[in-house]
């Protein structure tokens, strides 16, 4: 139980690293600015490494689905909250579908 909880905490930190990396990528101006470009690369490397470590304890399919969906949803919310991106009904429905899809994958794996 403890190792599984630790693995999910690693996934949470991995998602945070991915989102920070994506924000840095936005500020890198197409990799023309050194510091944000380096930060993006480092954050993405950290995110992948943490996910790989978590997969020692978790199933690959559900781990990647949770990681990808959480990162997608969190990045969209950061864009809305801090970068003036619009949140319309279609985007909100898309986020709900992403989360619902991960929940269904998780439920489908239970025995």
What labels describe this entry?
81% helix; flat; mainly alpha; 4 helices; 0% strand; 111 residues
Structure in words:
This protein starts with a helix and ends with a helix. The mean pLDDT is 93. It is flat. The longest helix is centred in the N-terminal third of the chain and has 26 residues, at 2-27. The chain is mainly alpha-helical. Helix 1 (2-27) packs across helix 3 and helix 3 (60-82) runs antiparallel to helix 4. The protein is built from four helices and no strands.
Q: Pairing-aware structural class of the strands and helices? A: mainly alpha
Q: Give the radius of gyration.
A: 15 Å
What is the percentage of strand-forming residues?
under 5%
Q: What general outline do the C-alpha atoms trace?
A: flat
Total helical elements: 4
Biggest sheet architecture:
none
Please estimate the helix content: over 70%
CA-CA gap between termini: 17 Å
Low-confidence spans: none
Give the SSE order as H and E letters.
HHHH
- Average predicted confidence as pLDDT: 93
- How many beta-strand runs? 0
